[in-house]
Every structure is written in structure tokens, then in C-alpha cells.
Design brief:
The structure holds two protein chains of two kinds.
Chain A (H helix, E strand, L loop, with lengths): L40 H16 L1 H12 L7 H31 L4 H8 L4 H14 L7 H9 L5 H13 L2 H11 L1 H24 L8 H5 L13 H36 L6 H4 L6 H9 L6 H13 L4 H13 L2 H7 L5 H25 L1
Helix pairs in contact in A: 2-3, 3-8, 3-11, 5-7, 5-9, 7-9, 8-9, 8-14, 9-17, 11-14, 13-15, 13-17, 14-15, 15-17
Chain B lengths: L1 E5 L4 H17 L4 E5 L2 H5 L8 E4 L2 E5 L5 H8 L1
Classes of the chains: A mainly alpha, B alpha+beta.
Chain lengths: 372, 76
């Protein structure tokens, strides 16, 4: 889990909101009147149709822009580079906007409190699967990792199930999935989703089997968790506003990384020899996967920040499994996170947690290099 | 009026503190602000996400930083 100290992926509402632009909204303050979603359906469909039309015309536009407007010759390296960039940038940003908006709305249905109620008292195997899935849709900022951990384990969520949640939440996130889908296709995105969930489920299950409850700091289980009371369910206007907030917050923060990533993909192809990385990070080098994980684990970055590096490595002949292992270890585990978790976990449990997850990532890396 | 900000000291907790003070001052409120950083005390409010705004012992916002106009509405 990477810690976004400034970049709170799972929360809405940036701190420096321009004053007076939005209606005040907050789950606790929303009145119970609930205009149904049907009122918004025509608008949503119209918006989607416009989105689709624009999306469809991006490819012809990029070709027209490159070869007619700029007058670049077809088949030249420069022409291909410009076309790639002009096509990919709006494409990925549009996908990102749509998905972040959708996920932002879905998240208004899943508060951490509700997730805890679902998971509390669940049997371990089922609980691990549920926790990994809920990790994707529960809004959760990693600076809340510690209170969330305490809140889970003191109300009957098994330790291993809690870890499944803590692993899947940062690793399987919508920004990573959209970027992988947009830049490398749906197969890579689906593989990432499946493997991320598998690692979260299995490593949580293993930690549960190891019976490591005594390696949680003693005061944690003695903590009296109060009851904040139920937050009022937001109505549909509020949900839509929260979705838009998510777009403003997340897309506003990652667009630059996305453009850099695409720029790297477009530009570097011609200037660094193809297969430059193949000898170091290709399939042939067996040690490249553990090395990638070893470098990735202490590193701290969010999904968007790591994409330019992923793009450059893959473009230059690094093996997919090695690169995915690197990406997973960067966004799922980090040194700042270990330090934060030290408040509630004894060193042995932290070491086990990092060890088990890193091992899972390692296996996924090898598996990929083997089958792709 | 007693305002408490719960949080272990992340960037967002400071952002919430500043925004809350701004909102309270522009409303001309008489208030006393306390930052709660002790985890056990934070947990006793029953929240799982930080930062949290507590007014007179009641949790108003958890896990996000509302804008100043939103905060004014919550404090008024």
C-alpha cells in the first residue's frame, strides 16, 4: 500500500476549494429528500453518447492534425510520434474521467463503516475474497490506514481479512486500471486486476493462518471503539457532486503524469535502441523479477506516477511480468507505510506482511514471464 | 463552542484545521479548538477515517476536507 500523504486518492473534495462555487454538501448534512436516479438517466445517457462520439473521432482527428494540419509526411518517425501523442493523450484522459466519475459514484454507496459491517464476523476464506473486492470500491485514504486497521480488528473483522483489504485497496485502483487499459490494452488491465485481487486474497489468508494476533500491539485490542452513529445516506444530486469532485481531485492531480507517460511512450521509441532493456529486464534474465521487487518495495509513488516508467521499460523490451511486478511492489508496499503501521503492528508482523505480499508479487512476475 | 480536529498529523489534518479556523472566524464564533492526535482518543469517537471534525462532541465530517462554505454551514 502506498501512502499518499498529499495525494488522497480515495477521498473527495480537495482542500483548497474555490470559495462559493459548489453547494455545500457532505454526507452528514444531506437532507433525506431523495430525488431518484431516474431523473438523471436522460442526462447521463446524453453525456455518454457525446463522450462516445468524441472518443470515436479521436483517431481520425489525430491523423488529420498530424498529416494535414501539421503537414508531416506519412510513414516518417516524427509523424508517427506526433500522431501517437495527439491520439493517446485525449483518449486516456477521457477514459480516466469517465471511470473516475463512475467509481466516484459507486464509492458513495460504500463507506468504510458499511464495509466493516459487511466484513465483521465473516469466516476467513469468504471474508478474504469479500475484503479484497471491497478494497476496490471503499473510499479510503491511506493516511487513514491506522484508524481503519484498529476499527476493523476491534469490531470482529479477522486479522487476515483486514490485511486482504489493506493490500487490495491501493494496489487495485481505478487509475492504475484505466492507464493499463488505455496504454497496453484490456488484457494487461484484466491480468493486473485478477492478479492484484489474487495477491490480496491469498496473502491475507496466509497472514490469518499464521495466527499473528499476538504481534498486533497490545493496546490495539483494548481500544474502546466508540460509535459515531449512522451517516445519512447521500441523495442522488449529492452522489453526482461527489463523483464530479472525484474527477476534479484525481484527474486534476494525475493528468500531468499521464501526459508524461504517453510522451515517453511516443518519444523514446526512436531515440533509445529497441531492446535496450531486454538484456537487463527481459525474460532471459531470471534475477530481474526479484530485483524489480526489491527496488519497488521501498519506493513510494501512486499509480499515475509510476506509469511513465512502466511505459519506458516495456517499450524498450523489458518483460511484462517484470514490469508488472515492479509496478505492484511500488504502489502496494512502501517504506513510509511500514513506518506508519509500526504504530499498531509489532516488527514481526510488519515483516511477515511485507514478505508475504512481496513473495506473491514475485510469483506473479515469474508466472507472467512464463506464459506471455 | 468546542471544536476538535482528529487526525494523526497528515497533510489533510492540517488543511482541515486551517479551513475550520477560517470558517469559524468568518462566522465570528466564540470557539475553542483542540487537535486530537492520540490514536486511542481518536478511536473513541468511533471513526475510521481521518481527518475528522468534531463540534461539541459530535462527529460532523470524517475522512475528508470540506470547503470553507461547507464548513460554515456545519458550524453555524
Amino acid at each position: 500500500m502506498s501512502l499518499d500523504f498529499q495525494n488522497h486518492i480515495r477521498t473527495t473534495g480537495p482542500a483548497q476549494e474555490p470559495l462559493g462555487r459548489r453547494n455545500p454538501v457532505c454526507p452528514t448534512a444531506v437532507v433525506a429528500s431523495k430525488p431518484g436516479w431516474r431523473k438523471y438517466l436522460p442526462w447521463g445517457l446524453a453525456g455518454l453518447a457525446i463522450w462516445w462520439l468524441v472518443y470515436r473521432s479521436l483517431a481520425p482527428f489525430a491523423a488529420w492534425f498530424t498529416y494535414s494540419l501539421c503537414g508531416l509526411a506519412k510513414g516518417t518517425h516524427l509523424g508517427a510520434t506526433v500522431e501517437f501523442f495527439v491520439f493517446e493523450s485525449p483518449k486516456v484522459l477521457m477514459l480516466l474521467t469517465l471511470v473516475v466519475f463512475g467509481v466516484g459514484i459507486v464509492r458513495t454507496f460504500f463507506t468504510p463503516e458499511r464495509t466493516r459491517r459487511i466484513l465483521s464476523g465473516k469466516r476467513e476464506t469468504t471474508g478474504n475474497v469479500l475484503a479484497a473486492l471491497l478494497g476496490i470500491v471503499t473510499p479510503f485514504c491511506s493516511c487513514s490506514a491506522v484508524p481503519l486497521f484498529i476499527g476493523f480488528v476491534t469490531t470482529g473483522v479477522p486479522l487476515g481479512v483486514t490485511f486482504s483489504f489493506l493490500v487490495s485497496s491501493p494496489m487495485v485502483n481505478e487509475v492504475a486500471l484505466v492507464l493499463l487499459f488505455g496504454l497496453f490494452g484490456w488484457k494487461v488491465a484484466a491480468i493486473y486486476l485478477g492478479m492484484g485481487l489474487a495477491i490480496a486474497i491469498v496473502s491475507g489468508w496466509i497472514i490469518g493462518r499464521l495466527r499473528m494476533e499476538k504481534h498486533v500491539e497490545d493496546w490495539v485490542f483494548q481500544t474502546q471503539t466508540g460509535n459515531a452513529g449512522q451517516e445519512a445516506e447521500p441523495d442522488w444530486p449529492a452522489r453526482i457532486r461527489l463523483g464530479l469532485d472525484a474527477v476534479k481531485d484525481i484527474v486534476g492531480r494525475v493528468w500531468l503524469y499521464v501526459l508524461i507517460g504517453i510522451g515517453v511512450g511516443a518519444g523514446i521509441h526512436g531515440y533509445v535502441p529497441e531492446n535496450f532493456m531486454a538484456s537487463i529486464m527481459g525474460k532471459g534474465a531470471w534475477w530481474s523479477v526479484p530485483l524489480a521487487v526489491l527496488i519497488g518495495v521501498p519506493m513510494y509513488s501512486n499509480a499515475a506516477g509510476i506509469i511513465p516508467i512502466v511505459q519506458a521499460l516495456l517499450g524498450k523490451g523489458a518483460a511484462l511480468g517484470t514490469v508488472l511486478a515492479f509496478m505492484m511492489s511500488v504502489i502496494a508496499l512502501s517504506l513510509p507505510e511500514a513506518i506508519i503501521l509500526r504504530k499498531v503492528l509489532k516488527p514481526r508482523l510488519i515483516a511477515t506482511f511485507f514478505g508475504v505480499v512481496a513473495l506473491g508479487i514475485l510469483l506473479v512476475g515469474y508466472l507472467f514471464n512464463l506464459i506471455m | 463552542m468546542k471544536i476538535q480536529i482528529l487526525g494523526t498529523g497528515c497533510a489533510k489534518c492540517n488543511a482541515l484545521t486551517m479551513a475550520t479556523e477560517k470558517a469559524a472566524q468568518s462566522l465570528g464564533l466564540q470557539y475553542e479548538l483542540e487537535k486530537v492526535t492520540d490514536l486511542q482518543r481518536i478511536m473513541s469517537f468511533g471513526v475510521m477515517t481521518t481527518p475528522v471534525l468534531v463540534v461539541d462532541g459530535k462527529v460532523k465530517v470524517a475522512g475528508k476536507v470540506p470547503s470553507v462554505p461547507e464548513l460554515k454551514k456545519l458550524l453555524a
